[in-house]
């Protein structure tokens, strides 16, 4: 999926080294005049706002994604084994990129990465704007359905490799996204970079699902250690982040007020600092819905915790004038705040026993007992209706059983 591909790349060279990097971007930052207080406030405020948008809307879209039957929109579930293995894989990838930049020409590596993210960015942006664009199409728009099917083998051994369904509206969104892609490829403009970065982040939060809160704690805890080690322990992440020319971070110029759209002294925030906490916040939103109390207490609590953690990151970075591993502040906030609320409400057991893969969302009835009825189709339908109208208490099923 586009979201997971973007996140894995980001996990290799993300966040801390660039998290709100107010000291500037790249090796030429020292030669630039210091940013004005107004410019820095505008840059930091814009980064925080841009970080909140994909988390909020991605979490909302993850709810509908969880009950989608379209194979192209099915979420990818992260298990506890995946979460435990992820920091190790990310560290190996980060170190590999570092060695690549040391051995091979940085120009050719970034050319390959630009082409890779050009394709991914177009797909991600198209998927992001598709629901919004549907409102602008007239009712009489000739919308035709298409299916891209790629199979392997023949007869009974035939296996589907790709089965992607789309329509004419999706093609229009793809064309619009391609314009942004060409703009980014030719100019590497910071606005085009941010459009792709926001699309990657929203897709990651929407399509990557943690299966339970314990898995989320394992993932965030592992990347907490990963982030701190590679930022404070070595110069690997800083080197890769400065060398990596791809939309893996959100940027905003601190000299926008002086130079306008041609500004080039950027503050940055890595996509990993958005996607990693974002998928945990989205999990808590689905947990809120599973409680069926018509409240989103844990979602709003974790959302406020994210704002607090990101604000603390920027404050510490500004005080010490050094790149900060944002997950150092985001992880304790995003886990600690909801946990304190659960302790106060006495719902810790419910929180940690909740399984996202086994969730039953509103308006999604499931038939778990199939009646054995002989006779006409009408009598079979009546029997099924009686079964559904008289639900019985059942025990919680494990994900494997489901």
From TrEMBL:
Protein name (Swiss-Prot/TrEMBL): HM13 protein
Membrane topology: Multi-pass membrane protein
PANTHER family linked to this entry: MINOR HISTOCOMPATIBILITY ANTIGEN H13, SIGNAL PEPTIDE PEPTIDASE
Chief place of localization: endoplasmic reticulum
Similarity remark: Belongs to the peptidase A22B family.
Subcellular location: Endoplasmic reticulum membrane; Membrane
MF annotations from Gene Ontology: aspartic endopeptidase activity, intramembrane cleaving
GO cellular component: cytoplasmic side of endoplasmic reticulum membrane; lumenal side of endoplasmic reticulum membrane
UniProt entry tagged with the keyword Endoplasmic reticulum: yes
Lineage of source species: Eukaryota, Metazoa, Chordata, Craniata, Vertebrata
Signal peptide: none
Segments traversing the membrane: 41-63, 83-101, 108-129, 207-232, 266-285, 297-320, 326-344
Family annotation (InterPro entries): Peptidase_A22B_SPP, Preselin/SPP, Presenilin_C
